[in-house]
Amino acid sequence: MKKVLAVIMAAAVMLVGSVTALANNPIVKTDGDGNRVYGGDPAILVDGDTVYLFIGHDTATGSSYNMPDWLCYSSTDLLEWTYEGVPLSAGDFSWGSSTQAWASQVVKYNDKYYFYMCKSATGMSVGVSDSPTGPYTDALNGKKLVDPSWTNGAVSWDDIDPTVWIEEDEDGVEHRYLCWGNSNCYMAELDETMISLEDANGDGTIDGGDITEIEINGIPEDSQYTEAPWLYKRGDTYYLFFASNWQEELSYATSDNIWGPYEYGGVIMPPGSSSNTNHPAVFDFKGKTYIVYHTGALENGSGYRRSVCIDELIINEDGTIDMFEESSVGLDGEAVYISPLSDTSEKLYHAHFENLPEETMYPTAAVVYSDKMTVNESDFLWEIVPGRGNEDYVSIQSVNKMGYFITNENSYIKLLHDNDGLTETAESMTFIEHEGLAGVGVSYESMTEPGQYLTVVDGMLCLTNGSDKDAATFIVKSADNPDEIDIECDENGITLSGTYAGERDAVLIYIKDESGSVVDMELLMLYDEHEINYTYVPEKSGRYTVYFGTYEKTIDYEGGE
Questions:
Q1: Closest CA to 339 of 505, 553, 501
Q2: Which of 236, 274, 379, 429 could form a disulfide with 349 if both were Cys (CB 3.0 to 4.6 A apart)?
Q3: What average pLDDT does this structure show over 284-290?
């Protein structure tokens, strides 16, 4: 008699709701009262075991910025973020507009916290506080740290987006660097007060003569430095991260001298699918390196109602950084593949699209297919999250085009962005998750059209009444390890059968007993179908752990002596 039957799907078992998880990105969505919050231009301060996130608060209702203040959040694990309130407002400075709380960075120096800020084209200044969360006060009493008259850049708003780096040189001399700029990238040293530039040329006056333009070599002819510089250092190498081109992508350059010249390293993040701008902040925390950036992924989001995301940043041993895409799963979400039961060798994917060249073309739409017609593997990745229109149900979000969901638009299935925040839009992106109509897997019933199910018809995702049960039933597998293996344990032994989804031609299977000793090991050769057939008969009853690739499963064997 069979004792155990386990269907292993590497953390994505075919049960209703089993892969539903709250999306990690964007990382902050509400204020302390649970109200929806938008904000961009993220900056990070690491202070001991706490990370502080500062964002410019987006309150725009149209296609122009309206940013009255900055918001602060804190975290000790980068997963849970606590709203810390408004540390500083644009109106706290007597000059410029009260609705232009643009990019900022907060740094700690001699037990005080300095809030470097800008207000569009009107200049930059600094606030000071005894606490990272504020409140901050104008440290210059209405004066400016950098006046726009001091520079003569390609655009009138070139004095924006401050970033600060503090370090000691090889002789033990401390330096405090301020970098900023749109179209042109500038740098100057701060004096020991942190609220004035150094008189670099010794003429007794603080002005443009104390400012240096940073040189970035090797930028391709079809690219350019745009804005949002962020300084970072790994070993002896300085990194300058910045937004490039328009619509904005993220790029980087490196140098062995903070003043440069910098050598262009390449694009690390292509333009996003929901925001015309981007803004990087790179930091180390608990032994890893992370990058925060912004999108327009939240409902009713856009390039003027942005939201902040986080991902781990991998810097290769040679110092280079590979390109990566925006990701809805962030640090703790789960990306999945979705395959129709009618042909489990296929996977749902959305038609590939890039950021659109004109803002008036937003949002775009994409058709969802089930046979491979794209070379971008990320187009196959989905995240199943609580329903936009009803959290008891589910919504299916593209991982690499976050904020875009499988949507029932007038009985046609499309990938769409919720750019209006309306209830009917959210409900059209919501589906009722059932046990599969074919008796396995899952089926998805439209919330707005009851009785209509997501179904693959001629390679395209549609809505039908579900009469073709196999085509309206889906197998959901973890994208990290999508193997589908049966383990049977009975008096005849321990048997593994099924399909290995990886690309290797062989996979190691081994079994340990309760003492941790390896009792069997086999390198199983795989063929075109990647089918797994393996049996081990233990000599005695007991608890055994089966290791298959990256998967492990502990089972009780009751056969033997």
A1: 501
A2: 379
A3: 95
